[in-house]
Amino acid sequence: MTTAVSDFKPPPPGDDSSSGDRWAWERALWAQGRTYVAGVDEAGRGPLAGPVVAAAVILPPDFDGAGIRDSKKLSAVARERAEARILTEALAVGIGMVEAAEIDRLNILRATHQAMRCALHALAIPVDAVLVDGLPVPDLHPCCQAVVKGDDRCFSIAAASIIAKVTRDRLMCACAEQYPEYGFARHKGYPAPEHLAALEQHGPCPLHRRSFAPVARHTSE
Hints:
CATH superfamily: Ribonuclease H-like superfamily/Ribonuclease H
CATH class: Alpha Beta
Number of strands: 5
CATH topology: Nucleotidyltransferase, domain 5
Mean pLDDT: 92
Strand content: 5-15%
């Protein structure tokens, strides 16, 4: 099972990224001699179609965190710029994904956790500790700390959120070429009115998550 970091004292909680030191979690772990700290986050839990994607990122201590924050609070252009810098300057980046059929088999929570484990395994450097956004993830790493709202309060997690989001968005844009009738490039598989109308007209395609209610009601027995 995942265990908390020993003697770990996180900064005071705060919703605003300026309310505390966004390197505080990494510095606490570095002070324990844990050199390689990976931030982990996901993108795509809510969509009706496509995979859930997770990323793991190890940043160097001298990384410039300017422009690195919760991917949902960045424009598409800002995310792309941030992604390019992270890929260039990070010590390691790993990506994991679980496709729609496996999401249906596992359920979305377990599939998200599996994508996170795959992302960690994809790192070229063995990690000493993990910082994960939100709630604890079972069996993610022996030294793991969950950080509530970590994607806007911790640079490593924010970097992972950007990589996961940009990766998934690009994938859904590519899927739009294969299934143009659903408009995936515009809504990325989320339950937008356009997407729901396309489901009503065309039914689900192989990318759809049939265990999700809006898709299930259009799935023939």
